[in-house]
Model the fold of this input.
Amino acid sequence: MELTEFIIKTITILVVFVLTLVIAMYSTWGERKVAGFIQDRMGPNRAGPGGLLQPLADAGKMFFKEDFIPALANKWLFISGPSLAMLTALLASAVIPFGSTFRYGGVEVVLQGVESNIGILYVFGVVALGVYGIMIGGWASNNKFSLLGAIRAASQNISYEVAMGLSLIAILMMSSSLSLGDIVAQQHGGNWNIFYQPLGFIIFLTCSFAECNRVPFDLPECETELVGGYHTEYGSMKLGFYLFAEYINMFVSSAIISVLYFGGYNYPGMDWVYNQLTASLGTTTGHNIATLIGTGVFFGKALFFIFFYMWVRWTLPRFRYDQLMNLGWKKLIPLAIFNIIITGASVLFLKPFITALLK
Amino acid sequence: MQLTNRSKQVSNKEMTLMERAYIPAIATGLAITLKHFFAKKVTIQYPEVKRYLGPVFRGRHILKRDAEGRERCTACGLCAVACPAEAISMVAAEREKGEETLYREEKYAAVYEVNMLRCIFCGLCEEACPKQAVYLRHDEFIPVFNDRNQVIWGKDLLVEDMNNRYTREAWTKEEAHILDAKRANGEVTNVVPRAIP
Done:
């Protein structure tokens, strides 16, 4: 039993890992397509049908470029920067629940890399580590622009993590669980958190933009001021890893948003579909197909948020650094605290009142 | 002084709460970009789809033949003189007996070469030609060179193929201008492209 569990977990983790990489890879293609479409262009369409081989061509180009390390850079830290960025980006996808369960030969497999009762804390811890990759890379480059970019990234991530954590507390107060699996299960039947926490959602979304260093908060790589920001001195696949890590982070945060606020793999009419499938196909096959539909819905939600990231990127201009800091500390944190108070009051007073009224 | 009616008075007034919330403005912006996302794309897929460049676009050269298939060029050299880039060179020869079906005049160009690296496609040769023999095609470009041998184009490439004649809606600037003016007015113009000037 121990061994089968180990094998099952290994396979799930591998699948999650590969899925994350493939989605991040095609996000680069998607980004260029979306950029093109928004600017009334076609986007890449020469490599393969619809430009679908473009990510492979880009990766090939990155691999064959000269792997350059500046003479006065700290060699080991210079290499470990992009490695850390990639590592921390990939770690976070382990606890995301992609679907409910999969039945095979009497064994119930949870579609989640690691089922952890502190899932959301783990995500936060790993995402907070992500700044080390940027900071180490920026410092090791021995270039003032790289260092400035890295410092910007670090201070921005720390500032926005506060507001992000506070907006999340409101969710945790409602779910009284830190497990992502539980949070999703509680949103079953149309009880999506977005309906209860619209303000929290907006704060969380804004902060995740800042955490991913995406436009309008992409000041760490602000090319008008800092040449290329923290990756000025990087080239070849090391640069590729930095850019790739950004797309992985984007996918992970999209997945987290859909888990926390949009019910993960839940969708309207889910129970009806489940009953129809189990009635017609039997409890095992029907259950598995229902799970697959739920997983598809989950990926649909996550991909929509990836699209939303891109959509915003090609719509909004970049913030100035003081505006960024003002927004983070003077607007979002007070709003998040206000949101906590409102949520607490509602949970304490409004909820018993409404339940008493409905009785 | 007001130059255009697009100018807008700059104001320093305090923003309202709606404006400071920034979210309505973001929503407006997102709506605009989404409209463009679904709009028709302006891209023309160049090598597969070619745009019509007008009846007097100056592309590659052609040495025209007349209706009976005789070369019009009489090797007078006016094109070479007119050429500001000195791209054209030729060798004249006298028409022999029995060659009347090949050459229109009693003198013809035995060799006619255009150096395509020198040519600036100004069209002065076309204007200088008294026999309406040399033209710049409106529908074809010079292909990319891969080799030095491909740079100088001789008569084999320049002289018109009678089986695939070069046709055009307008052969002179005046004709083209009249056509353009009619099309600008929205009149229906149904000009059949013809091979002979």
Remarks:
- Chain A has one domain: 2-358.
- The interface with chain B takes residues 34, 37-42, 45, 202, 311-312, 314-316 of chain A (CB under 8 Å).
- Residues 2-358 of chain A form one domain.
